[in-house]
Amino acid sequence: MASSFDSWSFNFFPMALITLAMTIGKFSVAVPLPAVFRSSPWSPAHATFYGDETASETMGGACGYGNLFNNGYGTDTAALSTTLFNDGYACGTCYQIKCDQSPWCYPGVPYTTVTATNICPPNWAQDSNNGGWCNPPRVHFDMSKPAFMKIAQWKAGIVPVMYRRVPCVTPGGIRFYFQGNGYWLLVYVMNVGGGGDIAQMWVKGSKTGWISMSHNWGATYQAFASLGSQSLSFKLTSYTSKETIIAWDVAPANWNVGSTYNTDVNFH
Fold first, then answer.
1. Are 268 and 36 in contact (CB under 8 A)?
2. Separation of alpha carbons 182 and 227, rounded Å
3. What is the pLDDT along the chain (268 residues), one digit of tens a residue?
4. Expansin-like CBD domain location, by residue (predicted)?
5. Whole-prediction pTM value?
């Protein structure tokens, strides 16, 4: 069983290792292809659910996605045990989960797909095999009830599952939600495709160079800089595939906190 996010083996292709030979006249030019996130092997885990059929208790969460309906995540979500959550770097990652060898499994259901939007914290007051389902080093998914009910009867409470990381298929580009003030910009990164995760992020004002942003919590990054009255661009590196992309002129010079800015750029 995989015991940590970092220990999983992913099949992806770094840009430095993949080239496309293009013939231009008499010359061959090696053109890098973008990194592509590939699904991981199936591994065993367990799954429970939290909340009710409305999934209202899944709103917000440790990733900072706020209203999951308004921000495109819906009810197909899960909270990850700390072994998977990776201090928030696993926010936005996507998983296929299938019920495995339980009388509570729905027959003929191959899997359901969920996005990580929350953390399932440890409960050290309970045994890891009797209520402390999210205690390290357990690999566990606490799913929304609607997502859980796609693979098993809710009366089961907990079921053994098989899971694997899969590419996140997202409509459109990455979205950025701004908070902060004149000297501090906090950015919530949403709708991330490919591996779904972010390792590093930079911001560039129209009057500055690239400024490195630090990981705050969940899927948020911050910069302590005065960036008012400047159009803003962002550079992001995927945690898993290491692909780096740039979203130019995401926000106009009159950008505001409390606003969401859409792009047409995303990971593969």
1. yes
2. 7
3. 333 333 343 343 444 333 333 334 444 444 455 677 889 999 999 999 999 999 998 998 999 999 999 999 999 999 999 999 999 999 999 999 999 999 999 998 999 999 999 999 999 999 999 999 999 999 999 999 999 999 999 999 999 999 999 999 999 999 999 999 989 999 999 999 999 999 999 999 999 999 999 999 999 999 999 999 999 999 999 999 999 999 999 999 999 999 999 999 999 8
4. 183-263
5. 0.86
Tell me the three state secondary structure of residue 113: strand
Write the CA distances from 164 to 10, 43, 88, 177, integer angstroms.
10, 6, 18, 29
**Contact assessment for residue 230 and residue 205, using Cβ atoms and an 8 Å cutoff:** yes
Number of residues written out for the chain: 268
pLDDT digits 0-9 by tens, 204-255: 999 999 999 999 999 999 999 999 999 999 999 999 999 999 999 999 999 9
Give Cβ neighbours of residue 56 (< 8 Å, ≥ 6 apart): none
CA angle 192-177-15, nearest 5°? 30
| DSSP structure class, residue 215 | E
| Token pair belonging to 101 | 């060898």
Calpha distance 73→66 (Å, rounded): 10
Q: Read off the tokens for 31.
A: 């053109």
CA distance 266 to 77: 20
Categorise residue 58: left if φ over 0, alpha if ψ from -120 to 50, beta otherwise: alpha
- Euclidean distance between CA atoms 240 and 238, whole angstroms: 6
Structure tokens at 249: 């002129």
Nearest to 197 by CA among 66, 117, 90: 90
Tokens of 56: 């209202």
